[in-house]
Write a structure and sequence with these properties.
alpha/beta; TIM Barrel; eight-stranded parallel β-sheet; 8 strands; binds pyridoxal-5'-phosphate
Amino acid sequence: MEHICQNIKKIKERIPEHITLVAVSKTKPASDILKAYQCGQRHFGENKVQELVDKQNQLPKDIKWHMIGHLQRNKVKYIADFVYLIHGVDNLKLIKEINKQAGKHQKKINLLLEIKIAQETTKFGMDQNLSDEIITKYLNGDFPNVNIVGLMGMASHSTNQEQIANEFNGLSQLFKKYQKQIPEFRYLSMGMSGDYPIAIANGSNLIRVGSAIFGARNYQI
Ligand SMILES: *Cc1c(COP(=O)(O)O)cnc(C)c1O
């Protein structure tokens, strides 16, 4: 996997400088992460708590760890002291738990609300009524140990580029609406290996890229 560095460089050449590239290292060994780290990559994404904790223990402490997967409430406590940003927050109980665990560490935890934009029923994410309700509570001071810093979304797994663009664009509109109300709103997390150019064209400023950096994942192991 000597190509990890080249892959990162290629992606960086293709995207504007203000875009945050999160290298999604799930299922990949710590040695691969270290290779990316040695090329200057600092933002990494994982989707399983145990794997995230194990890797965080082994790897340099200035890595910014992103929890990008579905997070169970009873596992927030394992990542509260070090996680940089939690992406997939799609319910009120989870926000309350993150707020509670952050409070124990006397810190604030950054999170993104995950909004459902795909047509498929399998994807996680909240609808806009719930995000409106949560934003209202947040502005009201209900979660003092949480920073809601933006939104995250996953487009349909589809070859229809126009549909993907429309889904991303819808989320971008919602992001702009909340940005007017919340000064700390700064991340719009959308785009993966297969669709990040479309995501960026539609307002994304944070992309989560796995296989285009580290190669295909093998889930059998
Ligand atoms: C795995 C994963 C990615 C990266 O997917 P690739 O297609 O390998 O780039 C991005 N976001 C989430 C939420 C993921 O689970």
